[in-house]
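Batch queue: ligand-bound targets. Current item pairs a single chain with nicotinamide-adenine-dinucleotide. No template structures supplied; prediction is de novo from sequence plus SMILES. Inputs echoed for audit trail.
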Amino acid sequence: MGRLDGKVALVSGAASGIGKAVSQRLTAEGAVVADCDITEAPGGITCDVRDQDACIAAVATVVDRHGRLDILANVAGVGIARLIGELSADEWRQVIEVNLTGTFLLSQAALPELLASTGTIVNMASVAGMRATPYNAAYCASKGGVIMLTKSMAIELAKAGVRVNAVCPASVDTPFLRNFKIPDGADMSLFTRAASPMGRMVDPAEVAAAVAYLASDDAATISGTTLVIDGAATA
Ligand SMILES: NC(=O)c1ccc[n+]([C@@H]2O[C@H](COP(=O)([O-])OP(=O)(O)OC[C@H]3O[C@@H](n4cnc5c(N)ncnc54)[C@H](O)[C@@H]3O)[C@@H](O)[C@H]2O)c1
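Prediction returned. Tokens below.
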């Protein structure tokens, strides 16, 4: 018997990396999982989380297919590394709109269903939302915003029985990190403070395990928290 038997989940950013691992883990724990991503995938729902109508349509598709929604995992995200003087306004907006506004829009679209099911939301923040990294201002601001969005919604929805939490991973071995390009002119000494005392990256499956825990009834009184997954980097 699975911990998430009978639950229906929607996972954004499910075509790659952490989102794919979350989808697999929630499925393994018994949930029926709908994947959504801006990238088309067989059986998946195509959704740009920056688009409010697309978010509403994605939730409607889940309910059409499966009758309910219990778990929303907001995993879709992007990052752009730039020196602060070279970060364009469009790049700033893109990161904020996907990571922060997208998390808000899909959460708001899912809210009627989550209120009906007394469901739960798990947001993908980052240690970058707690302890800044250089050349990453838009990303850090977006993830700090996700943490406070999580906390505000958790308080507001607690009496209605909807829990809202976030996970804050450090470096996770995914295409996102493998494609990370340190900008020309960066001061490499500024990166040493982000090193993990455990000396290794986080595996996507380890983040997915934390998401599954927060989504499950094992975390029934946990809401408004940020679960840090960083090998003691921010300890
Ligand atoms: N990899 C890390 O080191 C790390 C650390 C902490 C937090 N995170 C966060 O984890 C999440 C997943 O990152 P990942 O490492 O798996 O990256 P990834 O690039 O492997 O996956 C991100 C997914 O999000 C999707 N996506 C991008 N823009 C979208 C949009 N507008 N609408 C819908 N989907 C969109 C992409 O198509 C992709 O499938 C992100 O929110 C990221 O900020 C990653």
